[in-house]
Amino acid sequence: MMSDAETLISVRDLQLSFGPKIIQQNVSFDLKRGSIFAIMGGSGCGKSTLLKSMIGLLRPTAGQILVDGEDYWAQSDARRTDINHRYGVLFQSGALWSSMTVGENVALPLEMFTSLKPDTIRRLVELKLGFVGMEQAIDLFPSEISGGMCKRAGLARAIALEPDILFFDEPSAGLDPITSARLDDLILTLRDGLGATIMIVSHELPSLFAIADDGIFLDAKTHTPIAHGSPRALHDTCKIPEVTAFMNRSASIPSADKTEG
Amino acid sequence: MADQSPSSGLHKAADTPAWSLQNTADGVCLNVAGAWTVQAGGATPFPQDKLPVEPGHTLHIDTSGLKNWDSAFVAFLWDVKQAASKAQLHFDEQNLPAPAQRLLALLPDAPAEPAQPPRNTEGIFARVGDATLKGLTETGTVSELALETAKGATQAVRGKSAMRMKDLLLDIWNAGPDALLIVGIVNFLVGAILAFVGLVELRKFAAEIYVTDLVGIACAREISAIMTAIIMAGRTGGAYAARISTMLGNEEIDALQVFGIPISSYILLPSIVSLALMMPLLYLYGTIVAIFGGFAVSMSMMDVSPIGYWISTFDGVELKEFIFGFIKSFFFASFIALAACRVGLKAGRSAADVGVAATRAVVIGIVGIIAMDAIFAVIANALGI
């Protein structure tokens, strides 16, 4: 078997495309239990698309995603939904359901997929919102709170069903540095507290260096991953120009400069 | 080469952008003077054939007369640079203001060809085939949605649905009581207009009393059902499509899917059920208001007692007309809601796509209602209703 006890999700030769346009191909990596895995790369390289294929929103055109050895996309819709209940997803914009209050947003998965009593659910919702410092906003609508608060509430909803794998799509995008750093701390605390494995899509360098311990770098030109390893290691040792430029936040890729006169 | 300038000799205001060419020992010198701003003179073009072809020579630029400048000046310089490269002159930018040099460095040597957006270049047969396949797929998808919704509705009746009562009640309020005013106004006016037109014509035959039949039967059988459905297609159908496509753009639908919360029972069911429940009631209300509209006009234009008008209406309009209209309204409502939800789910994710979805939902709704009404008329005719 390919999956040992260490590996939680194993991605094998994944190919993602929209119609005839290939977004990424030959994507292979292992997500180790308890790690924080970063999907890195410039804008438009397909980071979010890869995340979408892992959480069941976009069927890959080739390759496999093995979750505990089980081929995710070969399962029936019902089985895939069961697997999804091990997942918690924080979307880029928070994606709170706008017709419901913050509390109802966190409560809905619990109402749908558990047989808990309403007052128990209310207690759990208060707890989850308390983790992210949002318990005071329980009866407010998403339109009545700020963008950063929406993200934190989205995080509370993501951990509503006690997931063991958390997916974050650009958690720090659009947040100020302080809020962003607090969110990083929160992610680390939740990882330790819930014993979760985390996969994060980001191009925020400070955040990547602070939390990720493994990762993959996707290249937009060749449509393949060009580097594997933790952001720190890629920064220190990787010699690929695109990766070096990304990790050092330099405006031009060294090898591409030689054509200019 | 003699001095060449667009403002030949006669300088207008001192601030007008002006340029001239002067031959020098090692090439050409371009003198620029005046205020080179978009406000002052627009973007002055530089003719591409004005420079003498002198390989190896240099084009100097003299900016001593230059006052203030903005992108109008940079646009001119870009033209000059391209003309210089055509004439194989070395473009010497030493004398240019440093910020202008930096802006010029951002620009490529010549404007790049605009990228061609991908266009469908298939032949007529491929397009027809493609459209047919899409049409068939769409029919399948919509039927599947309708089935799932019907399944959800039976589950809801047995009390096992994922639908939230709160959502259903909110949708019922929006599709029902909230629409009473506009449905009432439109139907009242339609009834009044019918009575007015009818009275003018019937008077010629001394058959004015039949205006009660005209208004009653026309409204109960056709007009109130159609008018109410058209109002609701514009009001509620458009709102459903806009709401769902906005949820799509906001990743709310994605979030539902990841949790495995069925969209059919969670979003579609309350929308469709509320409209299908409310519209037949709105139709009944609309018909009665329309008859009142006819009554109001008739009272002022013809010589009949109020009681006489109502007795004549009750005699002329049979119950089956109401049943026919009532059943039609139910189907119209289901169609409007289902089509609007499907259009919303299929929409793109940008703000423009929300507008397109709302428009399309309304258009499909209205055209569909009228087409369905024609089918109902044929069926009713065949069955002798």
From TrEMBL, chain A:
What PROSITE patterns is this protein classified in? ABC_TRANSPORTER_1, ABC_TRANSPORTER_2
Enzyme type, top EC level = hydrolase
Which SMART domains does the entry link to? AAA
Enzyme Commission numbers on file = 3.6.3.17
Q: Which domain of life is it from?
A: Bacteria
Kindly list the GO molecular function terms attached to this UniProt entry.
ATP binding; ATP hydrolysis activity
Ordered alphabetically, the record's keywords are: ATP-binding, Hydrolase, Nucleotide-binding, Transport
Report whether Electron transport shows up as a keyword of the record.
Answer: no
**Any keyword Transport?**
yes
A Pfam family this protein belongs to? ABC_tran
**InterPro entries reported for this sequence:** AAA+_ATPase, ABC_transporter-like_ATP-bd, ABC_transporter-like_CS, P-loop_NTPase
Could you tell me what this protein is called?
Monosaccharide-transporting ATPase
* Species this chain originates from: Acetobacter pasteurianus (Acetobacter turbidans)
TrEMBL record, chain B:
Recorded GO MF terms: phospholipid transporter activity
Q: Show the InterPro entries listed in the entry.
A: Permease_MalE
Keyword presence, Ubl conjugation: no
**Acyltransferase keyword on record:** no
Q: Which domain of life is it from?
A: Bacteria
Q: Quote the cellular component terms of the Gene Ontology held in the record.
A: ATP-binding cassette (ABC) transporter complex
Residues spanning the membrane: 179-202, 214-235, 255-275, 282-302, 322-345, 357-383
Q: Which keywords does this chain's UniProt record carry?
A: Membrane, Transmembrane, Transmembrane helix
What is the name listed in the Swiss-Prot or TrEMBL entry for this protein? Protein TRIGALACTOSYLDIACYLGLYCEROL 1, chloroplastic
Taxonomic classification: Bacteria, Pseudomonadati, Pseudomonadota, Alphaproteobacteria, Acetobacterales
